[in-house]
Amino acid sequence: MMDAISGALTAVSSLMTLSKDISNAKTDHEIAVKTTELNERLGGALQQLIAAQTDYLALLSEKDKLKTELVKLKDWAHEQERYQLHQTEAGGLLYRVKPAMQGSEPEHSLCAQCYQQGIKSILQPSADIGRFKMLKCHACDSDIQLQAYPSAMAMSSGEGNKWKGFF
Ligand SMILES: [Zn+2]
Questions:
Q1: Distance, CA 61 to ligand 1 centroid (Å)?
Q2: pLDDT of residue 159
């Protein structure tokens, strides 16, 4: 864009010189030659200004995109402060909302893989796999082992709900 602007400035400057030459011209022929040159340079200056304007509009668009991206990054940075990495009883890693930062939201966890990519994806209960109670990320399709099922003996002794509160 700077090239186009300095080109246009140079062109305008030469136009002023040409304009003076025309004022000082002694013959019709001299006036006609200088006028033709003036018109050609006006066309060139106009093209450079159009190029500068096009570049300027592209820069404005890029600036808006970056601004939106920056707002997203700031929001995400703020959001990240609400969560901490947690290892489930079965070894799965997830980001769990800090109790002090939970506010009125229900207890919940985020997918660690999506989290690393700046995506907030809340894990949802999923169909159990093998002897594990699972959580699923519907954004990246990850399955996270939450907890191994208690043994049948534990179930009968009333510990069947022992994972309650792990979401
Ligand atoms: Zn995910």
A1: 31
A2: 47
